[in-house]
Design a protein that fits this description.
- This protein is of the alpha+beta class.
- The chain has a single domain, classed as ApaG domain (Immunoglobulin-like).
- Helices cover 17% and strands 50% of the residues.
- The longest helix has 12 residues.
Length: 149
């Protein structure tokens, strides 16, 4: 029994090098709504995921910290962990898909200028750093990233 479990673990780990090839880039960041009374804005943050490998995978989670013009503006997460693998976006070899992630920006004294730039439509350069979780039918890989537009 122990040998069988070891064999399954070894077989599952064969996917790892292919899953680690995942590429992530900043996609589009759009202002969805703004609540001027509460000082909150909802953004739609896009992450472009590419599969340059030969193994099909899905993305179950992206944990990230978002920056605008170099200023940290908060943390958020894209998650499909509660969705069964067949219901997630499948990244076939050479596939490239933009995944949208909701983000709530709260105006503070530290980010007031950045908040105003975002909500007024001024040019803003976005960047993010975090962790992407890539899954195949047998394996799971966590990969750190740091990206900008």
């Amino acid at each position: 029994m122990l040998a069988m479990l070891g064999g399954i673990t070894w077989y599952a780990s064969l996917d790892n090098p292919q899953l680690e090839l995942v590429e992530i880039k900043m996609g589009t960041v759009n202002l969805v709504t703004e609540n001027t009374i509460e000082g909150k804005a909802k953004l739609d943050v896009g992450f472009v995921i590419k599969n340059p490998g030969e193994k099909t995978f899905t993305i179950s989670r992206i944990d990230y910290e978002l920056f605008a013009n170099g200023t940290p503006i908060g943390k958020s997460q894209y998650s499909t962990e509660d969705v069964a693998m067949p219901g997630r976006a499948a990244f076939y070899p050479d596939a490239e898909i933009e995944l949208p992630s909701p983000f709530t920006l709260t105006k503070t004294s530290e980010n007031s200028d950045t908040y105003d730039a975002i909500t007024s439509g001024a040019p803003v350069v976005y960047s993010a750093k975090g962790l992407v979780v890539v899954e195949s039918a047998w394996s799971l890989v966590e990969k750190e990233f740091e990206i900008s537009q």
